[in-house]
Amino acid sequence: MASETHGAEHGAEEAGGLVFHPMDQFIVKPLFGDGPIGMFTITNATLWMALSVVAVIALMIFGSSRRAIVPSRGQSIAELAYGFVYKMVEDVAGKDAVKFFPYIMTLFMFIVMSNFLGLIPMSFATTSHFAVTVVLALAVFLTVTIVGFVKNGAAFLGLFWVSSAPLALRPILALIEVISYFVRPVSHSIRLAGNIMAGHAVLKVFAGFAAIAVVSPLSVVAITAMYGLEVLVAFIQAYVFTILTCVYLKDALHPSH
Amino acid sequence: MATDSATSVGKCVDAFGSSIGMPQLCPDWVGNQIFWVVVTVIVIFFVLSRIALPRIASVLAERQGTITNDIAAAEELKAKAVEAEGAYNKALADARAEAQRIAAEAKADIQVTLDAAIAKADAQIAAKAAESEKAISEIRAGALESVKAVATDTANEIVNALGGKADAKTIGSAIETRMKG
Questions:
Q1: B interface mutation test: which of A26, A86, A89, A111 has the most B CBs within 10 A?
Q2: Are A85 and B57 in contact (CB under 8 A)?
Q3: Which runs of consecutive H residues, i.e. helices, occur in chain A?
Q4: CB spacing of A3 vs B21 below 8 angstroms
Q5: pTM
Q6: Is any Cβ of chain A less than 8 angstroms from the Cβ of B18?
Q7: Which residues of chain A neighbour B17 with C-beta distances below 8 Å?
Q8: By the 8 A CB rule, do A38 and B36 touch?
Q9: Residues of A in contact with B33 (CB under 8 A)
């Protein structure tokens, strides 16, 4: 993706050669008209985030609007999502973490909806952008750190002081623990965006191969297989993000090792 | 994607609408995305925490309550059914005993009547038998007399026919002797 070769690539495209623009799908552009993208410009990212809100409302509000004792299909899915995240919070972070359940549910619903909406052909995968996932990861990081200090005071620092290790090793372990603690938001955000971005880029690359007639059947098969994998990844990454949030929350609520 | 070539040409998009480097790392778009993701997450949070989650929680609690109530009701009904079965069995046993008692009573009554009837019938039969016996012996006696008379007459006639002289006394004793034999 070196920029100087781009012009040459476009020339090749006109000549019918094999060209790949796997990253073009991630370009942010204004929905209405041209011009620079400011902070409040309505862009394709805005559109697809809004659609994820619509999807969340459709599932969680319209799905459960009948409040049926015997649930319809939509209500079953909404209840399944509720039970899934609720149980995760309760099992991983403990009973006292249940008051954070709405926040964690928000993260899960946004990520899972964005991931699945991003899989619609020609759509924009909002969760493939580090700007988005870093916001989510930093929000988790800051919340967890603040909660840790508010709940435990200075005892929260005991998280970094491994009392089961020999005394001589403890300062070194503390340093490692501190580094790993601050690396958390980085890995947390890059894991999600990286997975989604890589999967979508690979799909685009396989699609590019379809330009060669001989390879195109294989390309279609590869895209189909990859798409199936991406459907799995879309859910698993949302799950991983959520469960890591629960793990971090557990550290904040119960910092002793 | 590459059709609207002139749009948003900047640091990150070339003149053909293709990305320069990773769009994820383009600083021009970071602010926009941060703003919108914050808006999105806040909207989802309020939608979930104000409407969706309380509603689903209440539906789940209500369902749990309904299930618990239904199970309790079912258990109650089961106990009632067991009770009813016990009452039914008891009523059946009572009825059976009553039936047996009535049957025994009826049998005894019938036995008494039967015994009386049999005794009466026996008496009648005995009377009738005695009567018959008497009649038979009368008839027998009558028959014996007739046989004797007929035999005497016949013997007389035979003796006369043979040219003898019948002596009534001799004939009488001969007949007596024969009839004994």
A1: A26
A2: no
A3: 6-14, 44-57, 73-88, 101-118, 130-152, 170-209, 216-253
A4: yes
A5: 0.73
A6: yes
A7: 24, 27
A8: no
A9: 28, 45, 126, 129, 131-132
Residue B67 near chain A (CB below 8 Å) = no
- CA-to-CA distance for A13 and A29, rounded, in angstroms? 23
Cross-strand partners of A159: none
- The shortest CB-CB distance from A110 to any of B30, B34, B44 is to B44
Distance CA A222, CA A216 (A): 10
**Can you give the pLDDT of all 257 residues of chain A as single tens digits?**
344 444 444 444 444 567 778 888 888 888 887 778 888 888 999 999 999 999 999 999 888 888 888 888 889 999 999 999 999 999 999 999 999 999 999 999 999 999 999 999 989 999 999 999 999 999 999 999 999 999 988 888 888 888 888 888 889 999 999 999 999 999 999 999 999 999 999 999 998 888 888 888 999 999 999 999 999 999 999 999 999 999 999 999 988 75
Q: Is B19 helix (H, G, I), strand (E, B) or coil?
A: strand
Shortest distance between the Cα of B68 and any Cα of chain A, in A, equals: 13
CA distance B3 to chain A (A): 11
Closest to B172 in 3D by CA, of B155, B143, B140? B155
Q: Any chain A CB within 8 A of the CB of B21? A: yes
